[in-house]
């Protein structure tokens, strides 16, 4: 939503990763963040539990770790979201934008630490593919409205796995497919709400998506430097310019 006059050409390096379980990959994750120049890591399907400490995941002197582990009994094992953000940005977690039945988390980075004119809000979400997916997408839309509407000049990133088979993300712009009226209506609401965000990563395989309102470019050199197990394909690195 930010005007081009507010862009300051400040580069941030980010990685989005659907890890499908960090419990057995904590050493790999820690080492990858340690050797890279990544500023912010966005993680879905973290599969973490309270017995795994933040200090096992990354250098606590360098990163603030924000976690939302799956604790509800209504869903199967798995899920969870995590954001690791460089401490120098002074990010804060928006607990006011969280819902008990939604694996979604938002952090806000103040403009002053970015050297920008606008704050940056980052939302990371995982929506399980089950029978209550439409109601969870509806709750996500409500949270996004609460975030977007009061702050029309801020920068935003929305990343996650939304498990919406009724949307084809691979065409450079989202295309709504016919997959049932309830989920189709919900998907339409999400698309309308996020229409101002460009689809940054149309090449990302599967139902994973990163949206934002700024210029960015993929950073394959970061990926080349990381130790990524061959079974993990849902990984992408990018640099955004604020």
TrEMBL record:
SUPFAM superfamilies: DNase I-like (SSF56219). GO terms for biological process: cell adhesion involved in heart morphogenesis; larval heart development. It holds the Pfam family Exo_endo_phos_2. It comes from the Eukaryota. Residues 121-185 form the Endonuclease/exonuclease/phosphatase domain. InterPro entries: Endo/exonu/phosph_ase_sf, Endo/exonuclease/phosphatase. Gene3D superfamilies: Endonuclease/exonuclease/phosphatase (3.60.10.10). GO terms for molecular function: catalytic activity. This is Endonuclease/exonuclease/phosphatase domain-containing protein. It comes from Leptidea sinapis. The lineage of its organism: Eukaryota, Metazoa, Ecdysozoa, Arthropoda, Hexapoda.
């Amino acid at each position: 939503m930010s005007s081009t006059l507010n862009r300051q050409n400040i580069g941030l390096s980010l990685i989005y990763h659907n890890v499908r379980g960090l419990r057995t990959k904590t050493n790999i994750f820690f080492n990858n963040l340690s050797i890279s120049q990544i500023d912010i890591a966005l993680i879905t399907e973290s599969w973490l539990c309270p017995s795994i400490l933040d200090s096992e995941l990354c250098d606590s002197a360098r990163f603030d770790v924000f976690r939302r582990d799956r604790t509800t009994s209504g869903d199967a094992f798995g899920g969870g979201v995590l954001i690791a953000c460089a401490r120098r940005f002074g990010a804060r977690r928006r607990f006011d934008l969280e819902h008990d039945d939604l694996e979604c988390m938002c952090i806000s980075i103040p403009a002053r630490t970015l050297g920008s004119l606008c704050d940056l809000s980052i939302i990371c979400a995982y929506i399980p593919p089950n029978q209550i997916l439409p109601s969870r997408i509806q709750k996500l839309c409500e949270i996004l409205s609460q975030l977007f509407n009061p702050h029309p000049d801020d920068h935003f990133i929305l990343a996650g796995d939304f498990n919406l088979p009724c949307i084809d993300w691979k065409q450079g712009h989202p295309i709504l497919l016919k997959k049932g009226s309830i989920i189709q209506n919900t998907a339409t609401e999400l698309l309308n709400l996020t229409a101002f965000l460009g689809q940054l990563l149309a090449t990302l395989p599967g139902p994973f998506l990163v949206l934002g309102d700024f210029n960015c470019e993929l950073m394959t050199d970061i990926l080349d430097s990381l130790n990524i197990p061959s079974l993990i394909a849902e990984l992408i690195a990018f640099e955004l310019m604020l």
